[in-house]
Amino acid sequence: MSEDILGKALLDYHNLKYTEDIITISSLDEEDRLPLPYMFRSFEQMPLLEQIALEHCKGMVLDVGCGAGNHSLYLQNKGYEVTGLDASPGAVSVCRQRGVLKTIHADFLSLDGQQFDTLLLLMNGIGITGKLKKLDTYLNQMKRLLRPNGQVLLDSSNILYMYESDEEDGGYWIPQNVDYYGEVTFTMRYKNEVSEPFDWLYVDFNTLKRAATFNGLHCDMVKQGENDDYLARLTFL
């Protein structure tokens, strides 16, 4: 097993050593390719939900799971004070080399002593929660990091469609070993190295809204996507 697969791949691409993409293998028995050029996309190349989220940012911004720094750089160039946060040391290194002025290499739950006007969690950034039962913990951390009039902007997807049955009567087949159908386990493979398995959460909007309300947050749908995805905004009640 290898650590920081994502960081190694991002550093390779940034240093002009791009020869292959990251392969992701999920508990849904699916293998997919994560193209490294996509991780360095411009604003014009971003999906509509990401573009809308960036246009809704305000004040001091924390870019959670900043990756290669695309969102941070766009906002920084627009005059925002942005901090890029990532648990991957390689990703943080790439952000710094690309010109992101403020970066933090840390786990989201460990962050303390700072507050922001906008928390930005894009590319299904809420996925870091891993399991639905941990969502309350992450929402309360968001509350601690938000200023009184602050906001959280996040996108996610309802992946129930992936469990549609092939039977004529329709319905869904959901594994018994998960508490919620949006809980997925991934591993990454890159240049013959394989990551440790990690949990990732896809949360449907209604479930997110119920959890937000329970934890003292208001949840609005900013934009519904075309592929069971959405952009949501969380604020204090």
UniProtKB/TrEMBL annotation:
GO terms for biological process: methylation. Gene3D superfamilies: Vaccinia Virus protein VP39. Residues 61-150 form the Methyltransferase domain. Keywords: Methyltransferase, Transferase. GO terms for molecular function: methyltransferase activity. It comes from the Bacteria. PANTHER family: METHYLTRANSFERASE, METHYLTRANSFERASE DOMAIN-CONTAINING PROTEIN. This is Class I SAM-dependent methyltransferase. The lineage of its organism: Bacteria, Pseudomonadati, Bacteroidota, Flavobacteriia, Flavobacteriales.
